[in-house]
Amino acid sequence: MQNYGSNVAVEQIGDVSVLSIQNNLDRHTAESVRAAYNQIGNGKVVINLGQVTLTSSRGIATIVSVMLEGEQKQQKFCLCEISDPCMLIIKTMNIMEHIEGVEIFDSLEEALVFFNQS
Amino acid sequence: METGKVSTIVPSIPGYEEIVVEAVGAMARIHEIPYEKLNKLKIAVNEACINAMDHGNDYDPTKNVEITFEYNEESLSVSVKDSGLGNVSPNFDEPDLDEQFELFKTMEQEISGWGLFLMKSLVDDVEIVGKEGEGTTTTVTILHEQE
Q: Distance from B72 to chain A by nearest Cα, in Å?
């Protein structure tokens, strides 16, 4: 497990990188997300938003920008355990309608199973 | 239900918006605001605080953000006032995400400008008033559910 700041960590599980975010997904945390993502090689990425207790449009926009960047690098993304504050912004902005190929799962285990089968 | 007002001040330092959001949670518990409505109010107030600290006060830690909670039998309002120039022209239009995402992919243009639309979508009312030289006040309001 590699930590980036106090709110972001990356764990390698097989060929899947799991990027976990906790507490406030604010501008500082967004910078840590960006730093963590830059260290992840090409491949499969799960972003776990289960422990995010507060976020903003800017925080979610950072997650979106990472996924758009990954799309261009042929990376595959899943979101899992999306906490209520994150889901509220994602749904209100209708974000998933505008991004192709990103799956959402209730649990990390389900996301890992999906990647292992794909 | 009684009527009243509570005020506080926070500096324009990233992270201090969390104190305001915690206070929103406490106010909502006192006034028995339902969980879903509370979450929406928290996000809206968070956006308002970040706007005030960033666009209003340029994250200058010597500039304060004034928060006022007002409650009565119909509603709970949270006002967020910055110390900026007060020359605002708010745009609550829905951002064109397809266009933003394309510009990000082709020109690395930052994805932004969701805050006002988000606020407007989440609460019952948003009012933004700027007074030249006195700052901008954003007020978000939720109405109590009628039984």
A: 26
Q: What does the block give as tokens for A53?
A: 């207790």
Strand ranges of the sheet holding B64-71, from the earlier edge strand across to the other edge: B4-11, B64-71, B75-81, B135-143, B125-131
Decide if B92 contacts B46 (C-beta within 8 A).
no
For the whole model, what pTM was predicted? 0.94
Instruction: Report B:58-87 residues touching A (Cβ under 8 A).
Output: none
Please give the DSSP secondary-structure letter assigned to residue B133. T
Token duo for residue B123: 């609460």
Q: How many CA atoms lie within 13 A of B63 on its CB side?
A: 19
* The pair of three-digit structure tokens given for residue A107, joined into one six-digit string: 């649990």
pLDDT digits (tens, 9 = 90+) for B63-120: 999 999 999 999 999 999 999 999 889 999 999 999 999 999 999 999 999 999 999 9
B128-144 pLDDT, tens digit per residue, is 999 999 999 999 999 99
Within an 8 Å CB–CB cutoff, is residue A96 touching chain B? no
Q: Say whether residue B129 is in contact with chain A using an 8 A CB cutoff.
A: no
